[in-house]
Amino acid sequence: MYEPVYIVGMGPGAEEMMTAEAVAVLEQSEVIVGYSLYLDLLGERFKDKEFLSTPMRQEAARCRMCFEQAVKGKKVAMVCSGDAGIYGMASLMLELKPQYPGCEVRVVSGVTAAGSGAAVLGAPLGHDFCVISLSDLLTPWEQIEKRLKAAAAGDFAIAVYNPASRKRGDYLKRACEILMENGAKPERACGYVENIGRKGEHAVTCTLKELKDEKVNMFTTVFIGNSQSEIIDGKLVTKRGYIL
Amino acid sequence: MYEPVYIVGMGPGAEEMMTAEAVAVLEQSEVIVGYSLYLDLLGERFKDKEFLSTPMRQEAARCRMCFEQAVKGKKVAMVCSGDAGIYGMASLMLELKPQYPGCEVRVVSGVTAAGSGAAVLGAPLGHDFCVISLSDLLTPWEQIEKRLKAAAAGDFAIAVYNPASRKRGDYLKRACEILMENGAKPERACGYVENIGRKGEHAVTCTLKELKDEKVNMFTTVFIGNSQSEIIDGKLVTKRGYIL
Known about the structure:
The structure is a homodimer.
Chain A: E1 5-9, H1 20-28, E2 31-33, H2 36-41, E3 50-52, H3 59-71, E4 76-80, H4 90-96, E5 105-108, H5 113-121, E6 122-123, E7 129-133, H6 141-153, E8 157-161, H7 171-181, E9 189-194, E10 202-207, H8 208-211, E11 220-224, E12 230-232, E13 235-237
Parallel strand pairs in A: 1-4, 1-5, 2-3, 2-4, 6-13, 7-8
Antiparallel strand pairs in A: 8-11, 9-10, 9-11, 12-13
């Protein structure tokens, strides 16, 4: 009945890392909703759009804003960094949708930090992997700990999102300790990337023991290899298992 | 010393789902190497390139082909479906690179089936998740089973790659049984997508118990929710945990 609301994954931020579909959807929109940091990353070609935002932690209000604009007859897109469905706003939008009869939600995927960060480091996710967020804003720490233990038990490579924030300075250290207590060796090959695809991109490879004491921030994505991962010519590589 | 070899993730297949970076790298290449199915998916604008391929299972030969072309002075890109580093050729290329002094490998990420398939179904990967391949061509089944058990123990949402092939008709059934034996309830919300972003795209939502007996093939990506996932207005949604 109303125009569909698009939830668009913009990838790491640079326009060249968005899909053509994502760019087209944003170009066809009248209103672009998003966290201000992501709106700032959008290039000149979108500057004629109406931008709407809410502060951090007001995600539900931001989603409601999309539906309210759609009900007014506007063509609306909401931007998320990375992929729209991976810790993005797609799930919250779909949760809220039944409250807005006649509204429709369409999800446009994008390159998540697991993929874009892995490409910078080499190929740390070349085999089965987990993606785990260390943010305990919405998830009890006990559940995060349970998942870290399971990831170690399954010998998964791991992409760690939200490894730190101002209030969670030691969470990556705790995560590394949990992995080592559950069978991951201190020599496990690891790495991390700060500001993937943005100004100041910075990649480091290290061991799990070293990772424990590295300074990371909310713009860092961390990669922990599985037991077979290696650093080859400076790149972090998790092998698929080809016999050479 | 030589031109860098690019390993390019092309996403699900349609050009509109490639990143602008991936398209630009392919346009600047002279030689495009890849499995024939993926080369066939490339649009008209790449038809002036030299295409090189090897049959399935000759992945190492395909990688060597890239380096050999680079050593001849050619600008080479290898295409992978989805993301170049997620079960793609990036890890094998980085493994082989030390045998080709003067060669350099650059990875260009793309939208992997976990992201693109999730977008079709709704938002099944809205919280921590695992990606597990059921192919035992290169991985012992015992390891796959260990990872399925760990995924159940950690209450992860799961994206299942390679859920079936002609020789592995019952692997998804076995995987579902292992998950249920390890705590996942038969009512767990699930779904799958065939031919993501390609002709014949087809999405189904179902319970874990129903999934066990669904007919899937090598072009299907399967999604298994976590214990909190729900089907909302026909969409598979794994909530992030916002209090509404």
